[in-house]
Amino acid sequence: MRQLSSRQVYRNAWMTVREDDIRRPDGSHGIYGVVDKPDYALVIPADGDRLHLVEQYRYPLGLRRWEFPQGTAPGPESPDPAELAARELREETGLIAGRLTDLGQLDVAPGLSSQRGRVFLATELVPGPHEREHEEQDMRTGWFTRAEFEKLLTRGEITDAQSIAAYLLLLFHERSRQSATPFTDPPPPAGGTRAKP
After folding, report:
1. pLDDT, tens digit (0-9, with 9 covering 90-100), for 98-125
2. DSSP 8-state secondary structure symbol assigned to residue 162
3. Cβ neighbours for 81, distance < 8 A, ≥ 6 positions apart
4. Whole-number Å distance between alpha carbons of 128 and 126
C-alpha cells in the first residue's frame, strides 16, 4: 500500500487526524484515515506479589476504569521512553522506581493510529507526592495482589487493552527468566551414588 498524498483534517494539542490517498497492491485507489498521537509509556509498578493501579474517568467511555499508569509527553517532544515512564509513574502515583525494566512494545490500534508504546516494569519503589495533571485530579490509586488483579480482569473491571497486554508481557518476561535459570543435577538417591556419564 502506497501513500500518494496526505492532508490534515483535524488537530489539537494531543493529536492530529489525517486522510491519505493511497494506492493498494492491486493498483486500485482508496483513502485511509490515520490518528497520529505521540508515543506513550506504560508502567507496571510491582512490589512482590502486589501491583499498583490507577483509576480514573475515561471521558470517551463515560466510565471509570482501573489501569496501569501510562501517558504521553506533552507537545511534539519525544523523550527517552524510560524517562517518560519514570515521569508518568511519579506524576500519577508519586512512586519513584529504583529500577525500570523494559518489557517490550505495544501498538495501540494499528489499523487506526500510528501511536506506539513501551512497557516497563518498575521495582524498588519509593513513595512520594504525586504531580498529576489537571485532567487527572479525580484519579485514585491502589495496590492489588495478582489474584485480585486477575479477578478484576475476569469481572470486566479492567478493560484497558494496553494494561491487559502489558500484564501478558510481564508474564512472558517472568517465564523467560525462569527458563534461563541454570539447570542443576538433582541430588543422588539416598544411600546411593549418581552414575557417571
Report:
1. 999 999 999 999 999 999 999 999 999 9
2. H
3. 39, 41, 102, 118, 120
4. 7
pTM: predicted TM-score of the whole model, two decimal places: 0.85
Listed as own residue / partner, the contacts of 25-31 with beta carbons closer than 8 Å and 24 or more positions apart are 25/1, 29/4
Give the list of residues 6+ apart from residue 105 with CB closer than 8 angstroms, or none.
Answer: 116, 117, 118, 119
pLDDT tens digits for range 17-58:
999 999 999 999 999 999 999 999 999 999 999 999 999 999
In sequence order, the 6+-apart residues with CB closer than 8 A to the CB of 76 are: 38
Strands of the chain (E only): list them: 2-11, 16-23, 29-36, 40-47, 50-58, 63-67, 70-72, 96-107, 116-126, 140-145
99's CB contacts (< 8 A; 6+ apart) are: 122, 123, 124
State residue 179's pLDDT score.
Answer: 82
Residue 85: closest CA among 42, 130, 45: 42
User: Which grid coordinates belong to 20?
Assistant: 491519505
